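Predict fold of ATP-binding cassette domain-containing protein; 238 aa.
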Amino acid sequence: MITTKDLTKVYRSRGREITALDGVDLHVREGEVYGVVGRSGAGKSTLIRCVNLLERPSSGTVTVDGQDLTALAGRGPRAGAALRQARTRIGMVFQHFNLLSSRTVQDNVELPLEILGVSGRERGRKALELLDLVGLADRARAYPAQLSGGQKQRVGIARALAGDPKVLLSDEATSALDPETTRSILQLLRDLNRQLGLTVLLITHEMDVVKAVCDSAALMKGGRITESGTVPELLATP
Ligand code: ADP
Ligand code: ADP
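Predicted 3D structure, encoded as tokens:
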């Protein structure tokens, strides 16, 4: 479902070159929860940002659901439309939720649907359905500031699902949450994976997160994947 081939990313910063990704081959199968784990600076964020097209790779390819995103990322208006289309197939959840504080919970979830040009009535129906799915139907009219961290992340997840993505990317989605809330959010991701057949790619600096929800995982260090396999396989290696 997600494949990267020899993916590299070199940043140029104040005359210095920083190799954030150094030949990453990733293979995430449809319907699995896949974790990429590593310390700060390992290249995890860069990797996930290349998969959701926020970042242009320096070389290599990224394929999501059979579509070569690197080919799409070429410039020009046609490429732009194709890129936006491809993005709706990829949902993203963030460490700090990235909700708009001036909009209600429901309006936050509706935002991607607005961008997709979905009618107001249909947007409302879909947003309420998604809020129900994440257990927050009763907070539709609340504002983000009135919610707990875990509730905010549930809104973030509902919003990520608005475009009916096949793939959900999670960038340290539980790092800002306490252990109990972390467990409930990881359980929600697991449930969505099972109920919707959603493929989940998550990045984390915590092996416990990988143990709790992932089927497979890769260890990342210095822009490279040093080991990968099923979670039982990885835990068995000394
Ligand atoms: P994380 O907690 O994911 O490791 P960082 O604090 O490393 O986040 O990065 C936050 C943002 O700053 C990201 O958008 C990242 O791309 C950018 N960033 C990280 N390191 C640098 C750097 N050396 N120069 C410029 N931008 C950077
Ligand atoms: P992680 O998510 O594992 O913490 P990142 O992908 O954020 O790792 O960073 C990998 C490396 O790339 C780090 O050395 C970081 O400082 C650097 N980096 C990340 N984003 C930028 C950026 N926008 N400009 C320059 N360097 C960056």
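Residues 13, 40, 45 surround adenosine-5'-diphosphate (ligand 1) (CB under 6 Å).
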